[in-house]
Amino acid sequence: MLYKRTEYFRYTFGEPLVAEFRIVVENGTDVESSPGECCFLDISPGGAKLFAKFDIPVERESVRLHIKFTLYEKLIDLQGVIVWKKPYSGGYMYGYDFDDNLEIEHLIVEELKLRRRSEIASGRDSKDEKK
After folding, report:
1. pLDDT by residue (tens digit) across 7-24?
2. What is the β-pairing status of strands 91-98 and 11-25?
3. Three-state DSSP class for 106?
4. How open is the CA angle 51-52-53, to the nearest 5 degrees?
5. Are 32 and 24 in contact (CB under 8 A)?
6. Spatial CA neighbour of 78 closest among 96, 59, 60
7. Torsion, CA 21, CA 26, CA 30, CA 33, rounded to 10
8. CA-based Rg of the chain, rounded to a whole angstrom?
9. What are the Cα distances from residue 1, in Å, to 12, 39, 81, 101?
10. Quick one: 72 exposed, middle or buried, by C-beta within 10 A (0-12, 13-18, 19+)?
11. Number of Cβ within a 10 Å radius of residue 129
12. What are the tens digits of pLDDT across the range 21-72?
C-alpha cells in the first residue's frame, strides 16, 4: 500500500469536525449504506484521520467511503478508501485517502485558509474582550 508522504501539511482540528459518511458498495450499482457520523481529527489535501464509533470491517477488502463535510463555508463531497484502522476511545480511528481530484484538493486548501483566518480573528476578538 502506498502512502502520500510527500504532502506538505496536515491540519489538526482543535475540536473534531463532524461529518457524514456512507459506505459505498462496489458491485457496479453504486449503492451506498445508510448515513453514519464520523469526526475528522486531521486533514490534508489528500486524506484525513477519522474517528467513528462504528466498526467498519476493513480486514477482508478495501472499503470505500463517501463523505460530506464543511470546513468553512462550502460543502465538500468526496470519496476515498480506508487505508488503516485502530481501536480508539470507544470507537475506531481510520486513515482515509481521498480519490485524486485536483479541484477537491484546491477547495480543501482554500477552505482551510478561510477557517484558519476566522479562528485567528476570533482569537484576537476574545483577547480584546478581556481587556
Report:
1. 568 999 989 999 999 999
2. unpaired
3. helix
4. 135
5. yes
6. 96
7. -40
8. 16
9. 24, 24, 12, 19
10. middle
11. 7
12. 999 987 667 788 899 999 999 999 999 999 999 999 888 788 999 999 999 9
Could you write out the DSSP letters of every residue in 27-93?
A: SSS-EE---EEEEEEEEETTEEEEEESS----SSS--EEEEEEESSSSEEEEEEEEEEEEEETTEEE
Please tell me the total number of residues recorded for the chain in this structure. 131
Residue whose entry in the numeric block shows the C-alpha cell 481521498: 98
Rounded to whole angstroms, how far apart are CA atoms 41 and 58? 19
How crowded is residue 105: how many other Cβ atoms within 10 Å of its Cβ? Answer: 16
Distance CA 30, CA 10 (A): 30
